[in-house]
Specification:
heterodimer; A: alpha+beta; Heat Shock Protein 90; 2 domains; about 60% helix; about 15% strand; B: about 400 residues; 6-stranded mixed sheet; 26 strands; FIST_C (chain B); FIST domain-containing protein (chain B); FIST_domain_N (chain B)
Chain lengths: ~280, ~400
């Protein structure tokens, strides 16, 4: 009886082994199919990426040409303009600029997604970079009577380990958003402080804020807040996605606090120079 | 004043300029501008001689070792475009010695020994670690390592990576000072007052039942369970894929399904990459699988690969006994790059989580890795350096 049971048990185990081997084959074949499908998708993605890149580059060149021509006209290089002509040309100039910004955002997004964004990390003073970006964007703030100030005097801050080019793009996106979504005569307050082995940068605005139910989506590509769309402010919905990717590539984090119709504060962190961490 | 390292990148079309730019970029970031050592990894897209001349034009005095690759890695992660990457190292505490062994095709073991003998003759008994860059398209990688150990002793910490050629499996190159070699192994010996940590792991998982290699010679498996070796892949892949197996380079199809064999001294199976298959169905691997070995087909998962990469980095860090890491050299199998696809940065990020993302890092995607089994270097009696495949080897230097 025992012998019979034993033989049956062996038979069962052999069956099980056979089934297991069959499952292993299926697993490998499925895995292979998925790997092939993934390769195909990557190929398509590459084609899409190249297409966007070519189209965006092709568009940027004539847009730059238009910008140059409009600039000449507005400067009166081709003769004096009356007020109406100036107003309409100015509108064209601004629209053209917005298109250039959109194209640049698309190219940045494509570079991020295809892993072609190059980061050349260096030790720099973040306040210098911040001042530089502020200098560039301040005309828009002045035009809309928005004040930009620092919460405290920025002194003795350690150097940070960043890629100046991409970090500049992240700062610019956040600051441009703050200006864009702040109502006329509003206020933007900036702060930089050391928190552990990171520098924390904050940008507080008295803007339209982010609706509670849309807060989760704010860093997604092409996402734009309901109230932002309503106000007809221009935007690609790519700026925050770009900023988040850049900050995270630096080993930092980005987050925000916001209340609709009151304002938003964006915070992000960047790593401090190793030697400076030890000093402090 | 300890180890000072930096990493530069060059990209573009002109080989000489790209080489020069990569080296200049590295030196620009170095506090002293006269590095002792340059480690150069380059895509085969570039004319190798001209690229190296470009590198040397910037730092003619430094000692130089390097390799062609199947993808370059830097502190910023794996590079998506063909590049030249250079690590420049300056340290008053480390001395470097180099050697080359040629004609791997004729005798891989003798080539390994020749490279190590030259290093040993100059470095003497103070030799602390040995880094090697072999060409395994020319011969059995395990034999090259065996030759190195013939010279340095059975238990000696060896790390390295086999040269690549952008996944073409045709011809790879090794660099030593001003010269570009092929079919050779370049060795770099280190002596002095420094610490080294080595992490080694793969994370591939066996599937299906074990089978036995019933006929093999060197790195060629002729038969498995009495049938032509290729049958194992035909069996798992199914008829459609099996047809392709015989017409294309096996490595391109099977590299993410390697073979694993049990060896003493490692809790993981030792991996062997299949590279080519002949008309009789014999498979040539990147290194040997001895007759009688019990082997399994292996599959990979990204999650597991990321997990073990971090674990390997932590192992390497532990060996530094609290010293701050100053330079990281990674030898990472091309199969892992294929497994990750466009997410290959995740693995390097995981390594940097353990080591720090500001520590200068250089590496490349290889056709085989060399390191002690289980990353054992502290207990020298248990340090058994071997030839690995599909594995990530992390080498960390500290003061």
């Amino acid at each position: 009886m025992d012998e019979k049971n034993g033989t049956e048990r062996i038979k069962q185990l052999e069956e099980l082994l056979k089934e297991q081997q069959q499952s292993a084959r299926l697993l490998v074949r499925r895995d292979l199919e998925l790997a092939r499908a993934n390769e195909k998708l990557q190929e398509f993605d590459e084609i899409k990426s190249n297409f966007i890149s070519v189209v965006a580059h092709q568009l940027r060149t004539p847009l730059s040409g238009i910008k140059w021509t409009l600039n000449m006209l507005l400067n009166g290089d081709l003769g004096a303009l009356n007020n109406d002509q100036k107003t309409f040309l100015m509108k064209s100039y601004e629209s053209n600029n917005r298109m250039i910004t959109l194209i640049n955002d698309m190219l940045d997004t494509d570079r991020i997604q295809s892993g072609k964004m190059h980061y050349g990390f260096r030790y720099i003073n973040i306040v210098d970079l911040l001042d530089n970006v502020l200098f560039e964007i301040s005309p828009e703030a002045i035009k809309r009577n928005i004040s930009i100030e620092f919460k405290r005097k920025l002194e003795n801050l350690p150097q940070v380990y960043v890629d100046p080019e991409t970090m500049r793009a992240a700062l610019q996106n956040l600051l441009e958003n703050a200006i864009k979504y702040t109502i006329e005569s509003g206020k933007i307050v900036l702060d930089v402080e050391q928190v552990g082995d990171m520098l924390q940068i904050s940008i507080n605005d008295t803007g339209i804020g982010i609706p509670e139910d849309q807060k989760k989506k704010i860093f997604e590509r092409f996402f734009r807040g309901r109230n932002a769309v309503k106000r007809e402010t221009d935007g690609s919905g790519l700026g925050l996605y770009i900023a988040k990717t850049i900050v995270e590539k630096h080993g930092g984090t980005i987050w925000f606090e916001s209340e609709e119709n009151k304002g938003t504060t964006f915070y992000f962190t960047v790593p401090i120079k190793i030697e400076d961490i030890k000093k402090n | 004043m300890g180890i000072n390292a930096s990493v530069g990148v060059g990209q573009g079309d002109d080989s000489y300029t790209v080489g020069a730019n990569a080296c200049q970029d590295a030196i620009d970031q170095l506090s002293e501008k006269n590095p002792d050592l340059l480690i150069v990894f380059s895509s085969v897209k570039y004319d190798q001689e001209k690229m190296l001349q470009g590198v040397r034009s910037v730092a003619p005095e430094a000692m130089l070792v390097g390799s062609s690759t199947s993808g370059e890695i830097t502190t910023q992660g794996p590079l998506k475009d063909n590049s030249v990457v250079v690590m420049a190292i300056k340290s008053p505490e480390i001395k470097y010695f180099t050697g080359v062994g040629e004609n791997i095709k004729v005798n891989p073991r003798a080539a390994g020994k020749e490279a190590a003998d030259k290093v040993k003759a100059e470095a003497g008994p103070a030799l602390k670690a040995f880094l090697m860059i072999p060409d395994v398209l020319a011969g059995n990688g395990a034999d090259i390592v065996r030759g190195v150990l013939d010279s340095l002793g059975t238990h000696f910490p060896v790390v390295g990576g086999a040269s690549g050629d952008d996944f073409a499996f045709k011809k790879t190159y090794q660099y030593l000072n001003d010269k570009v070699y092929s079919g050779a192994v370049v060795g770099l010996g280190l002596t002095g007052n420094f610490k080294i940590g080595i992490g080694v792991k793969h994370g591939w998982i066996p599937v299906g039942e074990p089978v036995t290699v019933t006929k093999s010679s060197g790195s060629v498996i002729h038969e498995i369970d009495g049938k032509p070796a290729i049958k194992i892949y035909e069996d798992y892949f199914g008829e459609e894929e099996a047809k392709v197996l015989r017409t294309e380079t096996l490595a391109k199809l099977a590299i993410t399904y390697p073979l694993g064999m049990k060896v003493a001294g490692s809790d993981e199976l030792l991996i062997r990459d299949p590279i080519t298959v002949d008309e009789h169905g014999s498979i040539t691997c990147a290194a040997e699988i001895p007759e009688g070995s019990e082997i399994r087909l292996m599959v990979g998962s990204r999650d597991e690969a990321v997990k073990v990469a971090k674990a390997a980095a932590l192992n390497a860090m532990e060996q530094l006994e609290g010293s701050a890491p100053k330079a990281v050299i990674i030898f990472n199998c091309i199969a892992r790059n294929k497994l990750f696809g466009d997410k290959s940065g995740d693995e390097i990020k995981a390594i940097q989580e353990a080591i720090g993302n500001q520590v200068p890092l250089i590496g490349f995607y290889t056709y085989g890795e060399q390191a002690p089994l289980g990353g054992e270097v502290k207990n020298i009696e248990k340090c058994n350096s071997a030839f690995h495949n599909e594995t990530v080897v992390i080498c960390v230097l500290a003061d």
